[in-house]
Design a protein that fits this description.
Blueprint lengths: L1 H34 L22 H12 L2 E6 L2 E6 L2 H10 L6 E2 L3 H7 L9 H17 L5 H20 L8 H16 L9 H16 L3 H8 L1 H6 L4 H23 L9 H11 L10 H32 L1 H14 L15 H14 L8 E2 L4 E3 L2 E3 L4 E4 L1 H5 L42 H18 E4 L27 E4 L2
Amino acid sequence: MNLVTNFVSADLLVYFTTCVVFVFYLLNGSKKSVVKMPPGPRPLPLIGNLNVVDLKKPFQSLMELAEKYGDVFTVHFGPKKMVVLAGYKTVKDALVTQADDFGERADMPIFAKITKGNGIVFSHGDSWRIMRRFTLSTLRDFGMGKKTVESRIQDELKPLLKNFKSHNGKPFDPKIILNSAVSNVICSIIFGKRFEYDDPTFLTLIQVMSENAKLLGTPKLLLYNFYPVLGSIFGADKRVIRNVDLLKSLLMKYIEEHREEFNANNITGYIDAFLLKQEQELSNSDTYFHDENLLYSVLDLFAAGTETSSTTLRWGLLLMMKYPDIQKRIQEEIRACIKPGQLPTAEDRRRMPYTDAVIHEIQRFANIVPLNVSHMTVKDVYFRGFCIPKGTEVIPMLTSVLYDKTQWETPDRFNPHHFLDANGKFAKRDAFMPFSTGRRACVGESLAKMELFLFFTGLLQKFTFRPPTGITEDDLSLKSDIGFILNPLPYTLCAIPNY
């Protein structure tokens, strides 16, 4: 009996041990499947995957890699390992659903060298949280998304229309004047005043800012971010740093003027509001409201408030020349909804679904910030069956969202019907995120939306845009220039007054 009992016990022990080992194997195997890094092309020594990435248009190469490796993949830019997120659902899951995990800004060498962690866009931790909160609150105080800022934009629309009319229907490049008009809106909020279009300091600020927006997306500067030591030796960053130093010196003059004339009872703009906050925090030795944060926050606002909306408007006018039937339909809607002699208002947008749809499609199609601004994981992050280690740079690629084949009927074609329902009413699309999304979304989104509608509608109300004589719609290129922000290739247009 004891023998039988011992045999059964031994058998049970073997069975139990086998079960434990099997369960351990399953758990261990499952753990391994979870903690693996996302797949990607095999890196080569020193250059990583640079052999399969076109640094003039890296977003195009990454889109191709996404087709092969999926919506989450690893790519090596030289010795730097990054994770790319592709597609609407993937980007939204990361930046919204797991916002805390992906909420930090990546340490990109050129921007770290420029800002030293100050300002809004490239700052980190408590400094970023406090500066972003203060900036959003201050922008709202000065009318962002309200009637106050609408009046500022309308006031700027008048000299813009006058400038366009002064060309008497002859060809001209609209870049500088559009940059100036859009910039003046954010300048009125930052400095409490606008600038004349021929102001030499103002023109210098705009031209230098525009040059840097292009330089920061060139292969030379991208390589600097991947190989900062070598980049410094070869001086890849010199032109950008020299431009930033010039911008800082010009902006500091305005800041010092405001400091000298500061009156706590007369807060005219963002700079004054910041100076007031500094005064209130004099006793706080750990305050983040120091001069470096003031300077770089102003620089961030000036750059973002100038380049993005003006670039989108330039794409818009180019597309109107390319598709005159769309331009004509917008103008018919304008005539039906806005009385002659009246400037467009933000309220008009509700009655103008086709114009609203076209503006949204311009933003989607233009795709002006294709790679987004890189994020970074704050800890080891488990995402879509992979483990992304703490401190990994993450690219939530906006191109892959705005051109997602699962979200857009004709992603590669300019098609305003993406934003219209069967009844011709404006239709929101979840995958429309040109301002990014989540914690690091653009602070000036509501301002940009109002600017785009009022400027674009006001221009088409007064003018019909055509290419110069001898150039047909088919000749107009929709290819983008190289740059951190994707500009259309340089072009000229004719603004023909609508009588």
